[in-house]
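Weekly modeling sync, notes
Attendees: S.R. (lead), two postdocs, one rotation student

Agenda item 3: backlog of single-chain predictions. S.R. asked that every request posted to the team notebook include the full sequence so nobody has to chase files. The rotation student volunteered to paste the first one in as an example of the format we agreed on. Action items at the bottom.

Example entry:
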Amino acid sequence: MFTIAIAPVLLRIGHLEVRWYGVMIALGVVAGLFIALKEARRKGIATDLIYDVATWAIIVGFLGARVFHILDFWDYYSQNPGEILSLRFSGLAIYGALVGGLVAVAAYSLWNKVSFWKLADVAAPALPLGQAIGRIGCLINGCNYGTRTTLPWGVVWTSPYSMAPINDVPRHPAQAYELLWTLVVFAVVWAMRKRFQTDGVLLLLCFALYSAGRVFISFLREDTIALFGLRQAQVVGVAVVVVALPLAYYLTRRRTVQPSG
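Predicted structure, as returned to the notebook:
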């Protein structure tokens, strides 16, 4: 059994709280942007363009992450509406961030007449790496905690400020599972980034891999049941896999099959 006694709040400056959760998300954003810029240079895309689109993707992504989280825990927020506009942003949902980010990239691409799929592939390796770093903050914070377990790597949170049950029975470190899985996704996407010649396939591979793993990991998390006995993330994850793989095949076929005549 492992014990996490670290307080979620790193430091306080007056009424301002600096939380590990926010620090790790910020570090994840920086790491992701570094990788995206590296890929942009390799593909001959102007770095100024990446800075511009990343700014909008981050802003809209955070809003999407917050909206998805609120919908997932609507029973709580409907009783505590004042928490909906809380500036702490202690609750964020990864699929909401992805949807919001994609909407921002699509809108930017349309407005500036640049290839959406090319920009998407630049972001493909950045997303899982940034998310892996962010999950460190989740583990310290105690959010997204797992179900009870008797396995030797079960985790107990002891900080009175933790979002997980305090001094409870050991639970699956679901955050660590997802951290490890996103690192695997990053490694696969990074290794495959030069092999795909069709724009968009790399991002779709990233989404499919992450979503497949998230479906299984969510069985070990104490999330709200949304539909057919599945959590919200599982329903979305299945939908992503069902859409991403055929779409990747279609994009590849469209590129390789040339019109005759």
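Discussion: group reviewed the output briefly. Strands lie at 2-4, 9-13, 16-19, 155-157, 225-227, 230-231.
Action items: rotation student to repeat for the remaining queue; S.R. to check formatting next week.
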